[in-house]
Design brief:
Order of helices and strands: HHHHHEEEEHEHEEEEEEEHHHHH
Number of helices: 12
Strand content: 15-25%
Radius of gyration: 27 Å
Shape: elongated
Helix content: 25-40%
Distance between the termini: 10 Å
Structural class: alpha+beta
Number of domains: 3
């Protein structure tokens, strides 16, 4: 079994010996425990040196999590031969009560409605070859306090102006935009993460969902030296560049995503009764400052002729259609980070209410996402390529049980017998059978 403190030795420059031992004991407990991942639950599985007060002291002392996450990734997860892209998304966890720091009403895509809870924005590195996401920076989203609205002016005193654009008005520079509070928060996170990385990994793309398919997000991304890959509204008004004799005219014919010319067709595939056409074209949008590299995926039912389409785009005009498709599909890898953090590592379970404790609980859950993938890589190479987190937890739980039983025996059994016991116990809760040989718990 991999020694947890050995994996955490890279963090000695950021954590003192006491905090490092506390973190090692907490991680051991989280790997072995069943049930909800709370401070009380961790203390019940932590064993000697892991009392509730010790766990509480760890959660209520501030940590430099961005640096810890980056150092762990660089030491154990980074592959120098692989290319990476940045992905960002927001995750919402449900919480009741009124005292938890930052609790408010946020829209949950899982519930498809606003829910009371906490929201966090996460930035992760996604490997383009291994197609694996590693969360590196997580910050809580705090809703601003609503300001008192001023009384509306008397409607009778308002002068009605003429419709349309005022005479003599000039075109605005669309590259100069006022960023929203959300985009300012993301830009600050990006700047801090890139500063922490120090140029170690060359990055070109930021992958965001369709919520950020607008000009302000593009300009924010370009300010950070990156290209945005995202999705436009299905009904976006897109125009071909004008190529006629009028040099002052900018916009050509409006693009109909469901009636595109064959010259833009890149690829066609068939899935049962559906034909899927992939089109790529450089277009203009009246709300964007620069041309967009657009890929339109058009699905047509061969029997009913029913159609549907999505519009993906990038500010990088050199991307091919399959590269753009692949980059946008990689954005979904961050959703697996959220799933694992909620299902296995306590992102949905923690009951902390103070700002420091909430920050520690959330970042610990995402650190466990990265650490579990490092452990899974070893197990998959040695045992089974489909080895899962459930198998990993079953294996560590088996070592915990066997270790506690051996402590009660008057004489320690032979190593071969311990290996047989470990194998039998580890496979009780595992999905894939794990051969545990030649290893005894310490």
């Amino acid at each position: 079994m991999p020694e947890i403190l050995t994996l955490l030795s890279c963090l000695t420059f950021e954590l003192n010996n006491t905090s490092l031992k506390q973190l090692g004991g907490i991680i051991q407990a989280m790997l072995a425990m069943s049930g909800r991942v709370t401070m009380l639950g961790i203390s019940r599985w932590a064993g000697k040196g892991g009392s509730y007060r010790t766990i509480q002291r760890f959660f209520y002392s501030p940590k430099n999590w961005p640096t810890l996450m980056w150092v762990f990734f660089r030491t154990h997860c980074f592959c120098p031969q692989e290319k990476y892209a940045l992905a960002g998304d927001e995750v919402v966890t449900t919480k009741s009560g009124h005292k938890t720091y930052g609790v408010d009403w946020f829209f949950s895509s899982l519930a498809n409605r606003p829910v009371k809870g906490l929201a966090f924005f996460a930035l992760s590195l996604v490997g383009l070859e291994q197609r694996q996401s590693y969360p590196l920076r997580i910050e809580q989203v705090i809703r601003p306090v609503p300001e008192a609205k001023a009384a509306p002016p008397n409607s009778s005193s308002q002068l009605k102006g003429k419709r349309g654009r005022p005479k003599g008005s000039k075109n605005k520079d669309k590259t100069q935009v006022n960023l929203s509070r959300e985009l300012l928060h993301i830009r600050g996170m990006l700047s801090a993460l890139l500063s922490t990385m120090g140029g170690t990994i060359p990055l070109e793309y930021l992958l965001l969902d369709g919520k950020f398919g607008h000009n302000a997000a593009v300009q924010m991304t370009r300010q950070m030296g990156l290209h945005l890959v995202s999705k436009l509204r299905y009904d976006s008004a897109l125009y071909l560049p004008y190529q006629g004799p009028n040099s002052r005219r900018k916009y050509g014919n409006k693009l109909n995503p469901r009636q595109l010319r064959k010259q833009f067709l890149c690829h066609t595939t068939m899935e049962e009764d559906w034909r899927i056409d992939y089109y790529q074209v450089q277009v203009l949008h009246k709300e964007f400052a620069q041309p967009l590299n657009v890929v339109i995926v058009l699905k047509t039912h061969l029997i009913t002729q029913q159609q549907g389409h999505v519009v993906l785009f990038s500010s990088d005009l050199e991307l091919t259609y399959n590269q753009l498709l692949d980059l946008y599909s990689l954005r979904f890898q961050i959703e697996f980070d959220f799933r694992d953090a909620k299902q296995f590592w306590g992102l949905e379970d923690f009951m902390n209410i103070s700002q420091t404790a909430v920050t520690n609980a959330v970042n610990l859950a995402f650190l466990m996402v990265n650490l579990s993938r490092r452990l899974l890589r070893d197990f998959r190479q040695d045992h089974h390529p489909q080895f899962s987190i459930l198998d990993l937890k079953a294996c560590y739980r088996a070592f915990k049980y066997v270790d506690e039983v051996i402590k009660l025996l008057p004489q320690k059994p032979e190593p071969i017998l311990i290996s047989r016991i470990l194998k039998q116990v580890a496979n009780l809760g595992a999905i894939h059978s794990v051969p545990v040989t030649g290893i005894s718990p310490e």
